[in-house]
Amino acid sequence: MKILYAIQGTGNGHISRAREIVPLLQQHGDLDILVSGTQADVKLSQEVKYQLHGFSFVFGKKGGVDHYKTWKNMNLPRFSKDMRKVPLADYNLIINDFEPVTAWACKMQKLESVSLSHQASFKSRKVPRPKTIDWGKLILSHYAPTTHHIGFHFERYDDFIYTPVIRSEIRNLQATNLGHYTVYLPAIDDKHLVKLLQQIPNVRWEVFSKHTKLSYAEGNVFVEPINNERFNKSMASCEGVFTGGGFEGPAEALFLGKKLLVAPMKFQYEQQCNAYALKKLGLPVIWGSNKNWLPMLKQFVAQPQEHQFNFPDETAAIIDQVVKKYTRV
Is this model's pTM higher than 0.85 or not? Predict the structure, then answer.
């Protein structure tokens, strides 16, 4: 059996989840991996057969998407060419993690494909989301259309939604508390974060930034480039995590029992929805309309959090179900 696993390369969450799913898919057949997009800092250890340009949202430095660089990075003729590049009809099963090229190619060729992603959960009206009019809803609905949907979210809001895929390397960590706070806000410049976090001098802040290639320290704020192993170590031993409104990062922090504060990216509808869901679960959120973050940060440091999330390891069973149900003979 031949399987194609198409993965979105914007952000680290899709690739991080794929690191757990790829070995499971390899147990079921001959697996080819496709990645489109260029914004991930985490890499796969397995060979990527197809590396496509795709559509990537480029992170800015002021809390949101850099719309100019995102627009400049788009290449519709190349997207159209890439749609014809992959021999999709040769595969018995096509699994898609919010990857647009193969999703649209399957749609045009009338081939079935299966969403296996956090974004797939938004096919359910039961998933929490703010009651706002946002063009991001259209992107979320039409960015990577598929015929079948398996979603992941913080809770099982519907019968096709499962709790997050927590990587084995996170499950195997020994959670401790050395008192520091781990920070990952990829859409904010680290220099801005340093100025902000230095105003809370009684704790150590460990900032992981997309915008620096060098490690440096200013007072109680320690900044370094993205590194998966060092980030995991910092998160496992921290008091709390201050991060964006992504999905996998907050889920891993909650799995490890860490205090959590999220600041969703501005004009990023999915992150707004994730933050809204966390808010409903009792977690603090800094919204884009909040111009002064300092009071909430001080409150985050000063107050304990009482929460317990059960994210069972169901990934192998989910993959078995997908293979049995959707493989084309």
Answer: yes
